[in-house]
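User: What would this chain look like folded?
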Amino acid sequence: MPETVVEKQTRTKEAAETPWNVVVHNDPVNLMSYVTMVFQRVFGFSRERAAKHMLEVHHSGRSIVWSGVRELGEHYVQQLHGYLLLATLEKSD
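Assistant: Here's the prediction, encoded as C-alpha cells.
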C-alpha cells in the first residue's frame, strides 16, 4: 500500500511577526472632513492626528494609518471599505 504524505503549511515565526500596513489612498469623491471623521471612528485618532493623516492622503496620495498584525489590518481595511474609502493592506518593509 502506498504511503500517504501529508504536507503541512507552516509559517515561520518571522513571517508571522512581519508587520503589515493599512494604507489609505486618495480619491476624488470623499470630503476631507469625512475622511477625518472616519479615521477618528475607526482608529480612535484625535482630531489632530486624523487631520494629519487626511492631509497626507490629500497631498501625497496615500498615508499609512496603522501597522501591526495581518488579521487586525484586514479588519481595518474592511471597516474603511465600509465607509467607502480606498484602503489596502501591504507588507511593511
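The first strand starts at residue 20 and ends at 25. If you want, I can go into more detail on any region.
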